[in-house]
Amino acid sequence: MRRFIKIASAVLLLACPFIALKAQTQSTDESWEQAKKQARTEKKLIFVDLYFTGCMPCAQMDKEVFPDPKIAAVLNADFVTFKSDILKEEIGKKLCMKYGVTGFPTFLFLNSDGKVIDIETGFQTVEQFTALLQNAKEAAKKGIFKKYSPQIQEKEYPEFYAQAYLANKRNVSFETADAYLKAQPSLTAEVPFVIITGLRIGRQYDDFFLKNAKQLQKDYGSASVSNHVFTILQRKRKEFEKTNDLASFKKLLDEEKPIFSAEDWTKYEGILLKDFGAVKASNNPYTLQK
């Protein structure tokens, strides 16, 4: 009987890798290095789930998506999985700092050397997550990676930024961040990028970001860039509302539309136009109809 239980348990762990992952006592710097070493040894990619207890979409992923047999099979066959609570574990905080994470859950897809293949945020359906896994495998096979450096080097970051993530001291003044950014040779480099997006730096950098959004998206992935562009468009909306210039605002939206997926744009455009009181005869369920 004991032998049967052991065999059954082993089969269950193979079928559901996230059960094994949850059984870890704590994710640490050491276990992160071990995950990368395991990926190199087994010639697999790395999947990271950054979450926190109490995050509803995080819990929804755990309940509805990760246990799905198709998802579990791909993760078990092609990925080493790593999960970290960003409020309780230092490695989770460091990974958030590294990639300027602002929303949860955030998913990192990396190769065994730590090179970023893709980053995605928010709840994903089984179909959406299956596509993410497949796209990550194909990109890695082609050697297509994002611009992020492969290692976490805390000394690369100014103290105000590191403390915002590692010590939750996020009340950074604009003057402090602005002084640092103005001293940088390129705002499109990794550290200035994560400072602007991670700390949601104010409108003084909005025009720069919109002008370079397509290249930044190519360099650092769609999730961080599209989320920040949406934040900028919300600020821009207020400027156009002062003069009631809906036509110019719509023109700006048309220019930024390619940054977003079709599904996200349907939602975001509706939200932005709704606040302008726009009447739009369409099938967009997020647009206010009058």
Features:
alpha+beta; disordered N terminus
Describe the fold and architecture.
- The protein has two domains: 30-142, 3-Layer(aba) Sandwich (Glutaredoxin); 154-273.
- 57% of the residues lie in helices and 9% in strands.
- It has helices spanning 2-15, 17-22, 29-42, 56-65, 69-78, 90-99, 126-142, 159-166, 174-182, 190-198, 206-211, 213-220, 222-242, 246-256, 262-274, and strands at residues 45-51, 79-85, 106-110, 116-121.
- A hairpin with a 5-residue loop joins strand 3 (106-110) and strand 4 (116-121).
- The longest helix is centred in the last third of the chain and has 21 residues, at 222-242.
- The radius of gyration is 21 Å and the shape is globular.
Report a brief summary of the structure.
By secondary structure, the protein is of the alpha+beta class. Helices cover 57% and strands 9% of the residues.
What is this structure's SSE topology?
Layout: H1 2-15, H2 17-22, H3 29-42, E1 45-51, H4 56-65, H5 69-78, E2 79-85, H6 90-99, E3 106-110, E4 116-121, H7 126-142, H8 159-166, H9 174-182, H10 190-198, H11 206-211, H12 213-220, H13 222-242, H14 246-256, H15 262-274
Parallel strand pairs: 1-2
Antiparallel strand pairs: 1-3, 3-4
Overall mean pLDDT: 89
Q: Could you say how many structural domains there are in total?
A: 2
Helix content: 55-70%
Spatial strand sequence of the major β-sheet = 2-1-3-4
Distance between the termini: 68 Å
Sum up the overall morphology in one term. Answer: globular
Number of strands: 4
User: Uncertain spans, ≥5 residues at pLDDT below 50?
Assistant: 1-21, 278-290
- Briefly note the structural class of the backbone: alpha+beta
What order do the SSEs take from the amino end to the carboxyl end, as H and E?
Answer: HHHEHHEHEEHHHHHHHHH
Estimated radius of gyration: 21 Å
How much strand content do the residues show? 5-15%
Helix count, DSSP H or I runs of 4 or more residues: 15
Largest sheet data: 4 strands, mixed
